[in-house]
Amino acid sequence: MAHDYDVAIVGGGFAGVYMLHRLRELGLSARVFEAGSGIGGTWFWNRYPGARCDIESLEYSYQFSDELQQQWHWTERYATQPEILRYVNHVADRFELWDGIQLNTRVQAATYRDEDNGWLVETSSGGVSARFCVMATGCLSSTNLPDFKGLDSFAGDWHHTGAWPHEGVDFTGKKVGVVGTGSSAIQSIPIIAEQAEQLYVFQRTPNFSVPAHNGPLDPEKEEMVKGDYQHFRDEARKLVFGAHFRNRDELADEATPEELQREYDERWAYGGLPFLGAFGDLLYSRDANATAADYIRDKIHHAVEDSETAELLSPDSIVGCKRLCVDTNYYETYNRPNVTLVNVCDNAIAEILPAGLATTDGQTYELDAIVFATGFDAMTGALHKVDIRGKSGLSLKEKWADGPRTYLGLATADFPNLFIVTGPGSPSVLSNMLPSIEQHVVWISDCIDYMSKNHLQAIEPTVQAEDEWVSHVNEVAGETLYPSCNSWYLGANVPGKPRVFMPYLGFPPYVAKCDEVAAKGYEGFAFAN
Ligand code: N01
Fold first, then answer.
1. Residue 118 burial (10 A CB sphere; 0-12, 13-18, 19+)
2. What's 7's DSSP letter?
3. Rounded Cα–Cα distance for residues 25 and 65 (Å)
4. Phi, psi angle pair for 106, to nearest 5°
5. Whose CA is nearest to atom 37 of ligand 1?
6. Residue 381's closest CA among 137, 32, 104, 45?
7. Is ligand 1 within 6 A of the CB of residue 149?
């Protein structure tokens, strides 16, 4: 039976947009279904004040077209959300992709049909059939809004950072509460504080943050990178996070106090996530990590005038175990007279009241607006919003009831011809997302092309390959400090979510494995003719 499309692509973020382009280059028909009224995925929804990327612009960008990367000019070292959104729209214009993108269309269900080895994709505006279904739904696109009692009764406005109103929000003269102190909060708090009459930050767990030292993009650096962009990309491909974090092999456990101080000072002055590359053992040894934690705590105490507030802002945890934050004036913001840090670790938020909120110790806070910077149901949340059914009607949710199971984060047994871009079990959020997305798009489209040329109807991983990969992902994580804290990498931020470490650490070995699997005729996958 003929399908409407060779490939149905769910999601119009950076993954869906490039997937469409790449499939078209191979002469295949594809359509992107996007719930939003525009493309860009995470960069379409996360419009909160201060939203910007924590990977430098020169490498948080597509590399599939040299003309594109040469001609596009980023204005800042770390691009703002509006600039990243302009960029992805430019890509869609430049490669004439709009006629393949259906906006305002939410995919509700995707069902595998044994009879024709294809997928029936049901959307808010009707159903389509396709040989393949590619889930390009993103890792951080399903917002997590805790079930706060009384939220419906709140008389003011409330917003989640991950679903911010397009028209913006004016906090001028308002009493504002921000719930959460992760990356989204840490980026937005300094800006909201400048507008609000009074800002209360409700902190359950403090996070480590490193200054971004953002500014206009250095023209010399731009010229240097653009002089040999391929070399710059090739270098990044060999690095553990797929980005230039200036990783060193030297061990903090073996460094003298002077070496530690010198290296951390240099990294702090440089700014951003490369702080984590200071020593090779920071994510492996508690003692090594403690040297970095002590250093940042000391910085917090220097930045924050009130010692009690500084102490409350100082994490007693492992640097990088939860994603390290990157900020502009975050800690300094607590020196403003209109900013108050509220500890909701001991006295949790009990309920939202019509005029504010109350904590369990009976304290109440009068608020005109609340910002929930409470994160995401990461990696699996967006997949589970779609009722995905594989062979014999098996639902993905049922199959993954104890945590996600994939082969290479790309596919899962019993769900033939279904691919996931940057799925659980792939480097995804532990890597620079853009190169990871491109690597997946190329791998998936090459696989589809191989199947077409070899008249193969269906592909799925073997259960054995999947089991071995899941064990390997756990084993690699188990050697690090990552599983030791309640992070969203583990699903620990969403009540009832199974605790499984979801991303794979190590971009280079991962890419090598994917290449090897393909070179061996898709080893670990089974085909049907
Ligand atoms: O979310 P988070 P996020 N009561 O999950 C708190 C990426 N990102 O949106 O730690 C009170 O990190 C929760 O407290 P706790 C980046 O990968 C990137 O900030 O669970 N508080 C925590 O403080 C990042 O890691 C950029 O105790 C509650 C906060 O809410 C990821 O997105 C920018 C609560 C959630 O923090 C997620 O970041 C922004 C409750 N009931 C995001 N429930 C860049 O720079 C939750 N919290 C590219």
1. buried
2. E
3. 12
4. -90, 130
5. 375
6. 137
7. no
Cβ 205 under 6 angstroms from ligand 1: yes
Q: For the segment 2-41, what is each residue's pLDDT rounded down to a tens digit? A: 899 999 999 999 999 999 999 999 999 999 999 999 999 9
* Helix 257-270, helix 286-303: angle, nearest 10: 60
Distance 488 CA to ligand 1 centre (A): 8
**Which residues lie below 8 Å from residue 503, measured CB to CB, with a gap of 6+?**
379, 424, 425, 426, 427, 428, 429, 430, 431, 489
Q: Is the pTM of this model over 0.85?
A: yes
Q: Which residue has the tokens 């490939």?
A: 7
Q: Say which residues have a Cβ less than 8 Å from residue 322's Cβ, sequence separation at least 6.
A: 182, 207, 485, 486, 487, 488, 489
Question: What are 432-454's pLDDT values in tens digits?
Answer: 999 999 999 999 999 999 999 99
Q: Indicate which atom in ligand 1 lies nearest the CA of residue 349.
A: 4
165, 6, 179, 18: which is closest to 94 by C-alpha?
Answer: 18
Helix (H, G, I), strand (E, B) or coil at 51: coil
